[in-house]
Amino acid sequence: MARIIRELRQPFFYLGMILVTATAALTMVSPRVLLLLQNHLNQELAFFTVTDPFLAHVRLGLALAIFIMMPLFTYWFWKAMTGPFGLTRTIRIWFVIFCCLLFYGGTMFCYFVTLPLGVNFLLGYQSEQLQAVIAVGKFVTFITVFVLAFGFIAMLPIFMIFGAKTGLLPRRKFESGRGYAVLIITIISALITPTPDVVNLSFMAVPMYLLYESGILIIKLLKI
């Protein structure tokens, strides 16, 4: 663990500096992105303090920076894993490629499928007497956390393959631990999703469990 921390310390310091710079730059274009999000979800927004719009744009700029810089983060992460776990250069490259593909695939699936369903469901409780007034800050936080979380969770099969490849978590552990996996997935989904209702929670939990099963299947196919 100490070796991994040493491997990550310097590159992540520079990545942190790049992240700050990218956030500042992308905050300048975040109003256009926010308008795109509003049109996509058909929502009108409001703010209740003078700092709300500025902080919302900064948070959106940060989320955009993380989204764009994901290949850099994954590259340096798996490079740090190479020495301690004996990963070959070829395996590292494949891990980086598929992590990026799954991350971006997960975010796109959330943006185009899960997010609209979740928002429509939550706002379905409106009535003539009860109309939603959505704060821009909470709107941005909800969307960015939800979308990025889907992206990170989508990388689950790669980390399962990594665990099996290095012997940290053999395939039989994943197969025998399905009950624990369901429990952990439910807890994580409850923490990430904004409401505890079954429908909204399932938008996160069901894809997570399907990813878990796909990880087991891929490990079998790779004969690890």
Number of helices: 8
Q: What is the ordering of alpha helices and beta strands?
A: HEHHEHHHHH
Number of structurally distinct domains: 2
Task: List unreliable stretches of 5+ residues.
Answer: none
Largest sheet: 2 strands, parallel
Estimate the strand proportion: under 5%
Tell me the span between the first and last alpha carbons.
24 Å
- The average pLDDT is 87
Helix proportion: over 70%
The spatial strand order of the largest sheet comes to 1-2
Quick one: how many beta strands?
2
**What Rg, in angstroms, do the CA atoms define?**
20 Å
Overall description:
By secondary structure, the protein is an all-alpha fold. The protein folds into two domains: 1-152, no CATH class; 155-224, no CATH class. 82% of the residues lie in helices and 2% in strands. The protein has eight helices and two strands. The chain has a two-stranded parallel sheet. The mean pLDDT is 87.
Tell me briefly what this model is:
The chain is mostly helical and 224 residues long.
Describe the secondary-structure layout.
Elements: H1 2-41, E1 45-46, H2 52-85, H3 89-122, E2 134-135, H4 136-153, H5 156-166, H6 171-176, H7 178-192, H8 198-222
Parallel strand pairs: 1-2
Helix pairs in contact: 1-2, 2-3, 2-4, 3-4, 3-8, 5-8, 7-8
